[in-house]
Amino acid sequence: MSELLECPACLLRAEHKPSGSWNEYRFFRCPSCDVIFCHPRKNPGRDWYENSLIHQGLSNFLYTQVIWYHKQFLEDRAVYGKTLLDVGCGTGNFLNLARGRYDVWGMDFNRDSIAIAKERFGLRNVFAADLAGFSERHPGRKFDVITSFEVMEHQDAPAEFLRSLKGLLNPGGHIAISVPNRDARLNSLAEADKPPNHLIWWDARSLGGTLERNGFEIIKLYPRLLDSEGLADNFENGLRFSSFGKRIFKGSLNSGAAKPLQKAIFAADIMIRTLFKAADPFLRRTSLQGSNLYALARLK
User: Fold this and answer.
1) What range defines the domain where residue 149 resides?
2) Residue 126: count of CB within 10 angstroms of its CB
């Protein structure tokens, strides 16, 4: 049965036919912008993220590495100004590398992640806050670049989220965004790709259209192609989100076993990625879409 709903990306209010369901959530594809969203749709908030097994323990270890979407920005030879804000900065590994070219700031409403960013990398201008709290704490503060990696899929109101980013940008400023690619050939995120963790599902068309409707000019927008790094990411995510992985890493971040466990994970990560390298010659011939989309855009 169709439901009269407003699309959270293009704001079209129309009859939407459900395309599936999971627990109490129903999924809808917007007939105008092609975004897929769930209903009901509500970001679960700070406490849920800090206590969810999806985001505990292992994520703080594996995501200390430089990830594909970080590389897309860091390997770009162009410099887009002097100041950079990373929205959803996590444990700060991207900011640690970007501070060679920018005066870096970061925010994430996960307090544990911000504590790690300060302790591990000595980052000073990182804050446990959401966008509203950050703006209230730093009134009038604006940036030349805003990055936000793997954040928009968590937003219950992505158009409002982009308007908030615009309010923090200097005239002509840039944003760099990544999201999970719903057209990916492989997806091992399992329950992590379901509500209430993910609320919106993007492809290149829906992401590009949403950016343009909200006042941005697209400079680059492309999918990750499946390679050995992507295979390794999928394999490790499969372990991370398995019942075994969640039992092993529950609460491990602050336990006495954290440092030995971290070393073991790093060693296993290197071994896994070395083994998967053998698949690269084959994967380069396939041009299969990988797990992420990357977009760089300029404020009009």
Assistant:
1) 44-179+224-287
2) 24
